[in-house]
Amino acid sequence: MENITLQIEGMTCGHCKQAVTNSLQELNGVENVQVNLEQNNAEVTYNPNQVSLEQMKEAVEEQGYDVKN
Amino acid sequence: MENITLQIEGMTCGHCKQAVTNSLQELNGVENVQVNLEQNNAEVTYNPNQVSLEQMKEAVEEQGYDVKN
User: Which of B27, B64, B68, B69 is 20 to 30 A (C-alpha) from A59?
Assistant: First the structure.
């Protein structure tokens, strides 16, 4: 398992937090997600053999947020 | 049918808009809802014989927003 902190723009409320959390948790290989609204980021624990940064970015961006990594 | 504009605090994003819209549309007697995020309000067309302002306020406040009417 590895950890990465995604820098995410556009999250404003609890609904946004939930949307981003769900989009990442649905990916195979993502084990844990912790979104911090105040810091505009998401800490993700994942298996790099199963899921890539690019896939995580796409999942979040599909929800309407920008990922700055 | 009558119209009322609810002044709502705390809506920040499209998810909030949808949550408020749904909460009002689910009430018997509410015919139409138009949430305007920029103006922090919701224009509601309703049948006053079926639904009261108090019920509309409760529905929105249950979603976590304040109604200032």
Answer: B64
In chain B, which stretches have pLDDT less than 50?
A: none
ipTM of the complex: 0.74
- Closest-CA distance, A64 to chain B, in angstroms, reads 10
Collect all residues of chain B within an 8 Å Cβ-Cβ radius of residue A13.
12-13, 15-16
pLDDT by residue (tens digit) across A54-65? 999 999 999 999
List chain B domain ranges. Answer: 2-67
Q: What CATH code is assigned to B2-67?
A: 3.30.70.100
The count of other CB atoms within 10 Å of the CB of residue B46 is 23
Q: What is the topology classification, in CATH, of domain A2-64?
A: Alpha-Beta Plaits (3.30.70)
User: How many degrees, rounded to 5, is the angle at CA B33 between CA B10 and CA B42?
Assistant: 35
